[in-house]
Amino acid sequence: MQISSVNDVKIYNLSHGKSLPEVRNIQRRIELIQDFEMPTVCTSIKVSRDGQFILATGTYKPRIRCYDTYQLSLKFERCLDSEVVAFDVLSDDYSKLVFLHCDRYVEFHSQHGHYYKTRIPKFGRDFSYHYPSCDLYFVGTSSEVFRLNLEQGRFLNSLQTDAVENNVCDINPVHHLFATGTSEGRVECWDPRVRNRVGMLDCALSSLTEGTEVQGLPSISSLKFNGSLTMAVGTSTGQVLLYDLRSSQPLLVKDHFYNLPIKSLNFHDPLDLVVSADSKIIKIWNKDNGKVFSSIQPQTNINDVCIYPKSGMLFTANEDPKMNTFYIPGEYMALGPAPRWCSFLDNLTEELEESPESTVYDDYKFVTRKDLENLGLSHLVGSSLLRAYMHGFFMDIRLYHKVKSMANPFAYEEYRKDKIRQKIEESRTQRVQVKKLPKVNKELALKLMEEGDDEAELASRKKKGKALPSILGDDRFKLMFENPDYQVDEQSEEFRLLNPIVSKVGQKRKKKLRLLAQQAAASQQVMLCLAPEETSSEEESSDDDKSWVEEVREQKESKKTSQPQFYQIKAGEEFRSFNDMARKQKLQKASLEDRLKLEEQSGTSNVSDTAVGSKQLTFTLKKSEQQRKQQQAEREHHQERKKLRRSAGHLKQHSTEEESSMHKFLPGTFTTRAEGTNKCCKI
């Protein structure tokens, strides 16, 4: 059972239960009617006039099922030759049934079963029964309305409408006015006594309200009379129009806002409510002002809705094997009381309001084969204690906890320590936070940090905006860096297939992780030595830990109170002051040329001559990758500039004249030409 509250109205879904096959817990599950379902899909559902029988049609195979409410079980089931488009109950009980099939056949059933079968000229979509004349009116893919008289057993003259096709029809229960809804969005009304049309309503234009998006001409998808003057019309675009038969304008237009055809219309007279349904939602609203009373939205699409007379219970036929049963208790602002055959629901709903609602899978634990092997329960596969589901099994949660405690008796202590550790970390979040790696997937986190820094730097260079948020700061991926179950196994075959080549960047990252781990371990030891008194009051320390803390505290106090320590210089060692150390570090940072000059000035440089002369070592400094790229870019730039250089051939004659004049006026000089420029050098 599922309880929902919409607009302060509680709705009980009596068909909602465990979705596990063949798992039934009678103490915690309500099964109002036994086997209240279809093999695949239920298409339509109705209640007999005496209220004792519920009849439903569905597939596959096409069939009809009749349920006896007095016995709360299935009474009979009959299979049919083809799918049922619509059906009706002609008698007060199930003894006279009429079925309209999708292959144009009309089938009659009596109390014992199949009685007669005939065929109409065109494919039918709906039909209505006229009790005073015993006529059946069939509408479908034709402009004609076919009439079949059950008393005479023959077809009568059909009614000729102005429509191309007729979708639905209905007969007023008071004055027996016949109405049919067309595909052009009109409603034609006929008087069966004279077989003439007495009126026509254009509902297509009236259904358009302010803000309605027009995608096509709305057709009539449902039709229902209430009393002698009220008529409700549902359109294919999701609007419900309420008409007074004395007016051509609608009294009220109610939009479902789903743009889906209205499939069912019902009236609830005690509270003046209209129950309209499309394939997504059932809306219950007041017929005078259109105010929403409540709404029901099942998990599957809706095919038909039926209200049990004079009660707060309704049934739905869905695109699902299970037929839903909804009950709105008969309290203040509710539909009505429970039916007589299930009057215990009133007391049951009162008890359920006091107890909290339980979740769907609270009694079961999902385990995989690996979990069963770890628990030592592999021998239970195939027994009634395990139910196969997807890639694992469902087992009773009590059995799981019992076996878990036996397999790992210290699991609670580990769980308790983890919780204490989490609380300590939560309390530490109030302090100044230092950017550090998470406990799980450290390498992945380091990679994301580096990529995030690169993206942020790139975004700042381009000045196009901020960088995208990192996965590390996204709460949706929080568990990936906290839960050890999400640890990436780099030794697995899947990881090796996705990452066949181990890059140098990955190796450097691993080396960096090792260094960070060593630094973290060293800092942790220092913190323990400096502040051993910062222990959590929630975590219980053992006697060994307390003794170790006392030893560390004693060592610390002894260091504070001890005398200065003296060190002895060993033989052969040279004592150097702090100035010598600073000079040595400064000398190491200097270039080789500066160090050689400094050694020559101080006289410490020695050059040894041998028989082959003085030896000299030549070497070239290795340039960094950035310097090589910069020089390569400069060379390419110079080459490009040379290609784009303008020709200076027309200046050749002028330049020779200038050179001759310079020889005249500047003796003792000579001129050279190189790359289009004049250079003068003294001899």
TrEMBL record:
InterPro entries: Beta-prop_NOL10_N, NOL10/Enp2, NOL10_2nd, NUC153, WD40/YVTN_repeat-like_dom_sf, WD40_repeat_dom_sf, WD40_rpt. Residues 601-621 have a biased composition (Polar residues). The lineage of its organism: Eukaryota, Metazoa, Chordata, Craniata, Vertebrata. Residues 1-355 form the Nucleolar protein 10-like N-terminal domain. One of its GO terms (cellular component) is 90S preribosome. Keywords: Nucleus, Repeat, WD repeat. Its main location: nucleus. Residues 531-565, 599-683 are annotated as: Disordered. Belongs to the WD repeat NOL10/ENP2 family. Residues 544-560, 622-639 have a biased composition (Basic and acidic residues). The keyword Repeat applies. Residues 640-653 have a biased composition (Basic residues). SUPFAM superfamilies: WD40 repeat-like. The keyword Repeat applies. GO terms for biological process: maturation of SSU-rRNA from tricistronic rRNA transcript (SSU-rRNA, 5.8S rRNA, LSU-rRNA). Residues 474-500 form the NUC153 domain. This is Nucleolar protein 10. It is found in: Nucleus, Nucleolus. Residues 360-408 form the Nucleolar protein 10-like second domain. It comes from Lates calcarifer (Barramundi).
